[in-house]
Amino acid sequence: MDNLQSAETKCTVRDVTIRLLRDLGLTTVFGNPGSTELPFFKNWPADFRYILGLQEASVVAMADGYAQATRNAAFVNLHSAVGVGHAQGSIFTAYRNQTPLLITAGQQARPMLLDEPYLWATQATEFPKPYIKWSCEPARAQDVPAALARAYYFAMQKPCGPTFVSIPVDDWDVEAEPLAARHMSTEFAPDPAALQRVADALNSSQRPALIVGPAVDRDSAWDEAVELAERTRAAVWVSPMSARCSFPEDHPLFAGFLPPVRRLLASKLARYDVVLVLGAPIFTYHVHSEGPFVPEGVQLYQIIDDPEAAAWAPVGTSLLATLRLGLSRLLELVETSARPAPPPLVRPPLPDKLDPIPAAFVMHTIAEVMPEDAVIVEEAPSHRNDLHDYLPIRHRNGFYTGASGGLGYSLPAAAGIALADPTRRVICLLGDGSSMYSVQGLWSAAQHRLPITFVIFNNQEYAALKSFSRMFNTPELPGVDLPGIDICAIARGFGCETVRVETSCDLVPALTRSFASAGPVVIDVILDRPEAELY
Questions:
Q1: pLDDT tens by residue, 315-357
Q2: From the candidates 58, 79, 89, 438, which is the catalytic residue?
Q3: Contacts of 148 (CB under 8 A, 6+ apart)
Q4: Which domains, ranges and CATH numbers included, belong to the chain?
Q5: Is 79 a catalytic residue?
Q6: Is 56 a catalytic site residue?
Q7: Does this model's pTM top 0.70?
Q8: 402 classed as catalytic
Q9: Cα–Cα dist 462/532, whole Å
Q10: Dihedral sign, CA of 524, 528, 532, 533?
Q11: Nearest-5° angle of CA 180, CA 181, CA 187?
């Protein structure tokens, strides 16, 4: 009887892994499987759901959006070698986004590994580097669950990021010991003496400024950032190329967006005596220019959860802390100031209702008619200035974009964000060029009837590249025009409702109907084609 009972309670690697994933809250699996992953799905549990993406880059980007929205790592299941290769661009973006992902990929059977078999991943753990925090192919099959647990804990430690485990196909049915999930703190506080110096500088400042970066929103420190700004009466800028919104952009203290150009950025900071950077590097630049990083006489401080960003900062004093804990401690030390508030941001005049349709008018119209709690996901780099001017983000967790600068993130990420919270409308703003990089994500959105409005800013060109061509004095640039793409036909082929908008009077009805739809709607907006100004 004892032997029979023992046999009945034996666990496989698969059993232990499923229990571990359930305990960690990872019951949604994103993937595009191949033959080396199939044994993982044997006896698939009813409380798990599998989100299929038609291409691996879309799979990882969907998981990225889902993880950011849930603030827990997402579990990703890829095919060995080529599947990981297809996903690598999105893995790079997840690394720059500091998104916790637990990525797995199949590997050929262990007895075959010395023979370089078909579908074998050579040096599997090296392939996704350097854009993962940790990778492993366990030496023994029974070590797979422990490797997955370690990968999860690494992914969740600040700064968060993707991790990778390669799993041979014959490991899943091997007997393994049970493994319990552990609780692990991910918060850490700043050095008290250093934090006091920051507080002293703010308390004595006459013209303070805050620069808020993506880690403020990632770490749920929005309220603390608002309180700090109001208590110090500081102007609040957004860090260059921030992938999240960390301060209400309609607040009286909101000052605008810093450009990713050293000379231009420094000129914006010249009016301040103390500048505190919250949850962002010092600084992210896109185009090179000479000059000081900050004007002479400006005291610069940084609170950030990323040791590498603190180490490579060229100027200023850096404090390591997670943002909510760091700001909470700082608020205990900062006095309420009676200094005059900075002058309010001067907003541009409202855009004209014209035909062909200006991108600025589209942004303004979306802001006017969108649901109050809608989430904006953006990948329209040619129109980012219009977004900043006419579509202010007012709520926490209200804005997402890719931090890497690579295209193909936002369309599938919007699906992941909607999967995480289907009660909020997601509005995904895409350039026509951007929409083509991970267009397969429309299929996943349609299959799951996700509440997403995809707005395509269709100018039939890579307008951002044309802008850069002028900046770099390279006229007559080849490969930047995009004629002949029928976006509505493509979207309908993936199962989405579509509408084409060519006149400004048709925009509000199209948007309004899409926001009322239970599923995804693609709105192809034909734009005028002025020269884009990026910075």
A1: 999 999 999 999 999 999 999 999 999 999 999 999 999 999 9
A2: 79
A3: 17, 20, 21, 102, 104, 165
A4: 2-171 (3.40.50.970), 192-331 (3.40.50.1220), 359-526 (3.40.50.970)
A5: yes
A6: yes
A7: yes
A8: no
A9: 10
A10: negative
A11: 150
